[in-house]
Specification:
Helix content is 57%, strand content 0%. The chain is built from six helices and no strands. The radius of gyration is 19 Å and the shape is globular.
C-alpha cells in the first residue's frame, strides 16, 4: 500500500475517481466500491464522509461547481464577456448529466441528499389570484 493521503490530495483523487466511474458506467451502475478502488482508498474512508452513492456524487458535483479561473482580459468588454461565458459553459459541461439526474432522483427518495436550496419552501408554486 502507498503513502496515505489526506485533505485536498485525497479529495481530488476521490472526485477524479467519481468522474471516471460515472463516465464509464453512468449513475445507475455507479458503485462506491469501484470509486474506492479507483481512488486507491477504502470504502470505509468514503462511507465516513458520505452515507451513500448519491451523497458522494453530490459532493463531487459541488467540488466541480467551484468557479473556474477567470479568463485573461481581451481588451474589450464584449471580448471579456464572451471569454467568460465560454469558460463557464465549458466548466458546466464537465458535470455528467447522468450525475445530475441521478442525484435529483435520489433526492426524491432521500431528502438528506437533495441540494440545500431544493426545499419545499423555495420551489415554485402556482399562485392563485382571487377575482377582483
Amino acid at each position: 500500500m502507498g503513502v496515505r493521503r489526506h485533505g485536498a490530495e485525497l479529495e481530488r483523487a476521490i472526485v477524479e475517481a467519481v468522474w471516471a466511474e460515472l463516465d464509464e458506467v453512468g449513475f445507475a451502475a455507479f458503485r462506491v466500491g469501484a470509486v474506492a478502488e479507483r481512488a486507491r482508498t477504502s470504502k470505509p474512508v468514503l462511507y465516513r464522509r458520505w452515507p451513500g452513492r448519491a451523497h458522494l456524487v453530490l459532493a463531487a458535483i459541488r467540488y466541480a461547481a467551484r468557479a473556474p479561473a477567470a479568463p485573461d482580459p481581451t481588451g474589450s468588454l464584449r471580448g471579456d464577456l464572451v471569454a467568460l461565458m465560454a469558460a463557464l459553459a465549458a466548466h458546466a459541461r464537465r458535470i455528467p448529466s447522468s450525475a445530475l439526474w441521478g442525484v435529483l432522483a435520489e433526492g426524491e427518495r432521500d431528502p438528506g441528499c437533495a441540494p440545500r436550496s431544493w426545499t419545499p419552501s423555495t420551489t415554485a408554486r402556482p399562485t392563485t389570484r382571487s377575482p377582483p
